[in-house]
Design a protein that fits this description.
By secondary structure, the chain is mostly helical. 79% of the residues lie in helices and 0% in strands. It folds into two domains: 9-119, Tetratricopeptide repeat domain (Serine Threonine Protein Phosphatase 5, Tetratricopeptide repeat, Alpha Horseshoe); 135-236, Tetratricopeptide repeat domain (Serine Threonine Protein Phosphatase 5, Tetratricopeptide repeat).
């Protein structure tokens, strides 16, 4: 049954890709359009459509190596989102082989290794991405997460500091640094970080929940209850908007 459903989805994806390719803008080639589908530029491509488009791009000869590397990277991202980490890593390998200074491919492969709890390879890839481009806050966030998952909180905090220095409005970095401080028992600093995350993003339900946990750990039951209630309200609103 699963294989039949997957085959049906692939057929529909091919049909969708073919139909969209017939409506090309003037001066745009089929390959140009497929690159757009592969990168999911409009945010509406299904995973199967993306995979098919990326595969077509990869298999098309007479292209620059960087374009093929980008298609491998994009297809790897789809596989990683689906939990197919080995397939994702294989595609990132190809992207890096074709474009050895492709920082984003190293970062993405690091995320796949991290999902497999292969922290040695994950950290090596995040290190490589940072060497190539040290100005991307998200890579420091990802490396910090790998450190935190191993309970290396000081190293994690150092990377969160760097992410925040690069992007002072990075709410997730403040929230995650708060988690690291909380894990160390530094509840006041954790609360300060959660508060900063909420100031940047007032709808950040997880930051309210985390701040509530920190308040509860300090024995501030009333403040904890207020944050838990706000987190629940924001979470319910988010679920309602997604169901529309």
């Amino acid at each position: 049954m699963r294989s039949a459903l997957k085959a049906t989805r692939l057929i529909l994806a091919v049909a969708s890709l073919t139909a969209m390719a017939t409506g090309l803008a003037r001066g745009q080639t089929v390959l140009d359009r497929e690159r757009g589908f592969c990168a999911n530029q409009d945010g509406h491509m299904s995973p199967d459509t993306q995979i098919i488009a990326c595969t077509h791009v990869i298999q098309t000869s007479n292209q620059e190596a960087d374009r093929i590397a980008s298609a491998y990277n994009n297809r790897g991202n789809v596989y990683r989102d689906q939990g197919s980490f080995d397939l994702a890593i294989s595609d990132y390998d190809q992207a890096i082989r074709l474009s050895p200074n492709y920082a984003n491919a190293y970062n993405n492969r690091g995320l796949a290794y991290r999902a497999q709890h292969d922290y040695v390879r994950a950290l090596a890839d995040f290190d490589a991405a940072i060497r190539i481009d040290p100005a991307v806050a998200g890579v420091f966030l990802n490396r910090a997460g790998a450190h935190a998952e191993q309970r290396h909180f000081e190293l994690a905090i150092g990377d969160y500091n760097q992410a925040i220095q690069l992007d002072p409005h990075f709410a997730r970095a403040f929230n995650n640094r708060g988690n690291a401080y909380r894990a160390q028992g530094n509840f006041d600093q954790a609360i300060a970080d959660y508060t900063a995350a909420i100031a940047i993003d007032p709808n950040y339900a997880n930051a309210y929940n985390n701040r509530g946990i920190a308040y509860r750990a300090k024995g501030d039951a009333a403040l904890a209850a207020a944050d838990f209630a706000q987190a629940q309200q924001l979470g319910a609103a988010d679920r309602a908007s997604q169901s529309r």
